[in-house]
Amino acid sequence: MNATRRGLLTALPIVGAGVLGVGFWKMLQGMESGGFDPRAIKNPNVGRPIPEFAMPGLPGLGDGFTDKELKAETRPVLVNFFASWCIPCVQEMPGLRSISRNMPIWGIAYEDKPENASAFVQRDGTPYARVASDRHGRVAIDWGVTGVPESFLVAPGGRILWHGSAALDPQIYDAEIRPRLAGL
Amino acid sequence: MFGPEQGHFALALACVLALIQFVVPLWGAHKRNARLVAMAPFLAVSQLFALAISFFSLIICAVRDDFSVQNVAANSAASKPLLYKITGVWGNHEGSVLLWTLILGVCGAAVSTFGRNLPDILRGRVLAVLGGVSAGFQLFCLLTSDPFDRVFPAPMDGQGMNPLLQDPGLAFHPPILYTGYVGFAVPFAFAVAALLEGRVDAAWGRWVRPWAVAAWCFLTCGIALGSWWSYYVLGWGGYWFWDPVENASLIPWLTGTALVHSAIVVEKREGLKIWTVLLAIATFSFSLSGTFLVRSGILNSVHAFANDPARGVFILALLALVIGGSLALFAWRAPSLTSGGLFSPVSREGSLVLNNILLCSICAVVVTGTMYPPFMQLLAGRTISVGKPFFDAATIPLTIPLLLAMGVGTALPWKRAQLARTFSHLFVAAILAAIGLVLCFWKFSGALPIACGALAIWVMAASVTDVLRRIGLGHSSRSEMLARAKSLPRSSWGAALAHIGAGITVLGLCGMSGAQHAIVEIHVGETRSLAGDDWTLVNVHDYAGPNYRAMQADIAVRHNGKLVTMLHPEKRDFTTQNQTTTEVAIHTNFITDLYGVVGDRHGTGADATYVLRLHKNPLAPWMWLGGLVMAIGGAFSLSDRRLRVGAPKRSAARTMAKA
């Protein structure tokens, strides 16, 4: 091995460590400014059309819905994944009811027994215009859902405009959803 | 004496001593001033003394319930048992950093004490590097994570400790793990000193190896203990989550294992010198970075530390100095180190090279998997999580040749091996492995567990037959064998034991791949069967503990109608901390663990149903037992006289005197 090649090889570790170090520094800066949140969940489907699906309804709450029906809507729709076994979903309900006075919310019960989900939705009055059951979570995978509750703002025609991975409340609606409705 | 202010002062004093320990011996070595260099051991011991006072003061604050100390107020409470008041000192960020620096101080003092026969200049430089690292961490402690910060007015009682941490296993897990992490500072310091000196030789390999082995033993125990804790405390039935914090301990373990082996080649064949120096730097760098990443909050982990980006910036700067400095020195000086001759691929050193390549490849896989999510988010803005499927798929194919090579390697002689002879040595082990393969087919399911299980038996059989061959089994008398066994170097016994331990761990992992579990919701009196056993919920009763309310279930496990054991899992509600913990019930016969967890109660009275999680975990205890055997093997090889620091010099001096 000649001297230059040796020199280059022995310099590799510091170059690698330097690249990693710069990356970490950027992350720390981003964490302080709020631009980088390692716990944030970003959905790759934002900006894309909704995936194809057809789901049955819940007992006593209509027939469910399909992607075609969602695309055919003339108003923007908030799609909300929920489950009766999820505590943040329980906490989210009053907020959803108040948002439902401003825009339609379509609910999708994620990995939930239909009777449990139905009882849960009807307990204090449903916020949902329509409800469907994703019994085994297949549809949620296509949407890129990582947990419940998660919500998607769907424009007429079926493009996903926004994704939220926290329990919704009127503040989030005012800050994140309402401004996006203005342009529609 | 031993109040918070004294502790604070002692820490500051230790920091000053560490800075002097960093500067003076280096300057002395540069100027060839023996008196300056000779100050290093004294400084290292004084620094340890100051650190010990500081740490002891913090313990006293916790024991005396001095809630004017912010750290005690935030993590302790008057009602906490004394043991956990003491161990709680290192159960939080500030205290654990102080423990970290204390262990670093112990390492420095150990080099001063046990390294008396090292060349003075080398020892001075090693201690200087240790002092520099110490000073950095003590500054970090003083400036951003001061454990002696006061609160005014002092609260009447502390906020208490996370009940999950009130466990003897976890109490001693951090000190052991940190000793492993920090212990690798010594090989690191030897590497930097060697680069400064511009010389790496067989003696250097012999000096550095015991320190690396010692740190490796502690790290092995630490990882095993952490995994065992997560198995029996968290109640999720698993033992390894590929969580970033776990990976942060596995990465230096992998490079450390590679280091322990490559240093042998430096010692025996004066080869792999540059590589060994790099491994020594890399291992400690990974130890440091792991801590940094976990505490800065960059990695998304289930282990919650109080994340603080400002602290992260300080540690990152410290890492840039320590890691960047040593790697820059490496890039500058390593090319001038003379490399040894070429190796024959079929030889002991050839197999050790293969061992290093495979271990470092596994390490690269783990680093990639751990770093991928944050970098993907930084560069592409996408959220990605990397978990078990990736790690299993990428590490197991690398582990299989590693296990194969472990068996062959110990049977190969140095320099050049004759294949036919090696095969004849391994014949018995191969037959045992073949029998093992049949056993694995019978007991395990799936191609990978069967293959890995047979290879684990192969490793263990090869280690045992190798030792038996060396003591002359079959062609020597009993007294001759005994004499040979006595004269066989302890390091050979240790290596065999460590390899057997690795085999035991792998067998445990293979067994656990066939673990079965069920989540059931049943009434009292109902029975469910799982994996051939009948589990009956006999009774559930509530009781009040000292600072919690508990629900205890009595579960009878029967096999073919015969009672195997009664399990008593509990669910505890800690009202003050508003937290629930599960007390797992485990029955083990060292072949299979029966593992029961009680969850929620639904409904009331006779109608109530209980959610139970039942696991049958084959060979589970072997995973941690193997870790312990590995560490014992390492400790055994440490007791080898040849490896003891300074021994070679003493015998060299004796030979010279004779001449």
From TrEMBL, chain A:
Classification of source organism: Bacteria, Pseudomonadati, Pseudomonadota, Alphaproteobacteria, Acetobacterales
| One GO term of the biological process aspect | cytochrome complex assembly
Which GO CC annotations does the UniProt entry carry?
A: outer membrane-bounded periplasmic space
Ribosomal protein in keyword set: no
Under what name is this protein listed?
Answer: Cytochrome C biogenesis protein
Q: Where is the Thioredoxin domain?
A: 44-184
Give the GO molecular function terms: antioxidant activity; disulfide oxidoreductase activity
Cite the SUPFAM superfamilies for this sequence. Answer: Thioredoxin-like
Annotated PROSITE patterns: THIOREDOXIN_2 (PS51352)
Q: Which InterPro entries match?
A: AhpC/TSA (IPR000866), Periplasmic_diS_OxRdtase_DsbE (IPR004799), Thioredoxin-like_sf (IPR036249), Thioredoxin_domain (IPR013766), Thioredoxin_ResA/DsbE_sf (IPR050553)
Gene3D superfamilies attached to this UniProt entry: Glutaredoxin (3.40.30.10)
Localization terms from the record? Cell envelope
Q: From which organism does this entry originate? A: Gluconobacter cerinus
Q: Which UniProt keywords apply?
A: Cytochrome c-type biogenesis, Disulfide bond, Redox-active center
Predominant location = other
What is the superkingdom listed in this entry's lineage? Answer: Bacteria
Pfam families assigned to the protein according to its UniProt record, in alphabetical order: AhpC-TSA
Disulfide bond found in the keyword field: yes
From TrEMBL, chain B:
**Superkingdom to which the source organism belongs:** Bacteria
Q: What is its main location?
A: membrane
Classification via NCBIfam families: nrfE, PRK10369.1
Protein's cellular compartments: Cell inner membrane
Q: Which organism is it from?
A: Gluconobacter cerinus
Where would I find the Cytochrome c assembly protein domain in this sequence?
A: 90-296
Q: What is this protein called?
A: Cytochrome c-type biogenesis protein CycK
Family per UniProt?
Belongs to the CcmF/CycK/Ccl1/NrfE/CcsA family.
> Which lineage is the organism of this entry classified under, starting from the top rank?
Bacteria, Pseudomonadati, Pseudomonadota, Alphaproteobacteria, Acetobacterales
Transmembrane segment boundaries: 6-29, 36-60, 97-114, 126-145, 176-196, 208-230, 250-267, 274-293, 313-332, 353-373, 393-414, 426-444, 450-472, 493-515, 619-639
